[in-house]
Amino acid sequence: MVTIIKTEFIKLKRYFIIWIGVSLMLLTVLLTLFTTMADDGMTWDYQFLFEQVVKNFVTMIFPMCITLISGYMISREYTDDTLKNIETLPISFQKLLAGKLIVSAILSLFLGAVCFAFTVIANFIMGYEGFSLASALTGLVQMTLLGFFLYLTMLPIIVLTSRQRSSFLVGVIVAFVYGFIGMFANGALESIYPVTAALGLINYRSGTGGVMWNKGLCLISVLAMCAIGIAFMFIKPKPEKKEVKKTNRPAHKKGW
Amino acid sequence: MSDYIIETHDLTKRYGNQISVSHLNIHVKKGRIYGLLGRNGAGKTTTMRMLLGLTAPTSGEVTIFGKHFQGNEKKILPRIGCLIESPGFYPNLTGTENLKIFATLRGLKNPKYIKNALELVNLPYRDKKLFSQYSLGMKQRLAIALAVMHNPELLILDEPINGLDPIGIAEVRDFIRELCDASGKTILISSHILSEISLLADDVGIIDHGKLLEEESLKELEAKNAKFIHFCVSDAQKAAQIITTTFSSKDIRLADANNLYLYNTTLPVAKINRSFIEAGIDIQEAHLCEDTLEDYFKKITGGEGIA
User: Fold this and answer.
1) Is ATP-binding tagged as a keyword (chain B) (predicted)?
2) Residue from the list B74, B101, B107 with its beta carbon closest to the beta carbon of A10
3) Residue of A10, A66, B160, B281 with fewest CB within 10 Å of its CB?
């Protein structure tokens, strides 16, 4: 498995999808900064900026982003036609997928950290108060872990759409909707709905925002999604179909 | 134990109602080049995919190195090098980086494996050119380098000369021949190019519509090819009468008023020519001819020729 992970990192060299991930993290922060322009009487400081970035990160960008990156990493084995070379080594698709999912987990931590770095840069540009080393350290740990927990909640979608080439794009849409619904989760549902449960695990706005997290429930919710994702890995793929080139039917003659 | 490196028993592959490969029984001998010859869509690639476990057979069995393939994949596959369909590599990486991935996965730590494989196919080691910038010929060479990198005992090469220029084709042909002759490797090669198979293979399997029509050594196939004497004369009808009466042979075919084919090549051609002249028949041409492998292919597939 270590060898597979090692080679997965080699495959990421010069790979554009990582830059798309970084760009999406920047977009999360820019989207948040855009809302500062609203004249709603809110006083912005570092803590508020961080919370708003986290909100957008969870409900708008990250679920879609990590599903896209993981999906691309898996799908390329089909599109670049490299799966046959790997399967004849022999390395099974399941083993390869497991390796890719571990690398995606590491990337989720990385992207969380990148998003935090953009938040800090944005804070300096905007000149908000309330930034301290302690709050920065807490923020870094929180956002990095949030990326990882969110990734775990997306595992079933990533795994389920990995069996066919390009079906991950459907997964990206589902992940976006799945994340967006989190915006409407309230009360006890916040600790049950996997996307918002990930927030509970990092103590998001605990106390200050009046949010009372049921940590046990949050953990169960996230781990359950992770377990479902792993279980999906063992589903047998559909029997193969031979690719048949579509033949153009002769156009019907219209008119006389 | 069987003398064959690859043996299939009634290997069949069905996609829905369509039969791609039907009750195929091929036998690849150790240290020989076996050419699987057939038109596009004849079932060559499907057969090779089944031999490598990339496609599950609907029925039948594959035995490689004397072991049943199913259940022994982990023991068998590391001893095989393969090139199936188009070369598949990561476009964002260089040729060396691509090979490094597969060398790492195979547990080949020494970079000499990559270097030697690239040298064999005349590709530069540690070149900065990305795979996406490679020409089709370079891609094909890299795929061959991947197939031979781990020094396998058996090579399964599906149309390895696709996309290569004439010089490249000759180089790959020599290289494959050398792998077999000098290193004793067994090679199964598929092609729809008849001339390539006839130049390279020791044994030939002719596949058409998923069925193996013929499996013999190239020498046996060549011996099977019909030999005949072609006469182009002023009166073929009269010439045929002379051969039948004077030389007691009915093994002839009258093509038209001027062309006559004599299939008994043991008859004395000089005497036949003299008899024709004495009977007042003018002889424009007289040749000893032999059917080509293509003619034979046409004959047994019952259709048109092949490239």
Assistant:
1) yes
2) B101
3) A10
